[in-house]
What we know:
7-stranded antiparallel β-sheet; disordered N terminus
Amino acid sequence: xxxxxxxxxxxxxxxxxxxxxxxxxxxxxxxxxxxxxxxxxxxxxxxxxxxxxxxxxxxxxxxxxxxxxxxxxxxxxxxxxxxxxxxxxxxxxxxxxxxxxxxxxxxxxxxxxxxxxxxxxxxxxxxxxxxxxxxxxxxxxxxxxxxxxxxxxxxxxxxxxxxxxxxxxxxxxxxxxxxxxxxxxxxxxxxxxxxxxxxxxxxxxxxxxxxxxxxxxxx
Length: 219
């Protein structure tokens, strides 16, 4: 849990500025070295709403326990929870990691389509990775590439219906319009780090094996 306090003039603890709390949540979720890497890739960073590991766990576990067999989620997917939100110097620049419960069963997931290069990697029986990378647009000044990286994990949450394991997995998404980094391997490594922490916090009873890095074939 991220707790940050400062001392007031009267010696009483007061909450730290939201930016400091959000940065701490990102350092907890993505690791300090990842934040340092982001600082090297952008001239300025701003830290936005970030719930960290505990805040994300509390919301996601509630959503997954709400799933019932034969009854779809009242949405296509549940609302996303911002584990870490980082903004950059330009409008729309961001590096965000979000999680949500999804109605996409693992065996139904496909490589994303649309503009860009889509890919899918089935890591093991419990973990699937997808990516969509759009390179900078030729002839458009100052345009940078945009990447969206997802991890799907079969995670049986304590207290949830047994069918939730296969029908309502956990999904994490890293969205990058900040760094112009085309390497899926770098992005997946950041995303998988936070996923491993969240899976541990959720206490997934099926013990899914989430790797620290993507398979060697991912570049």
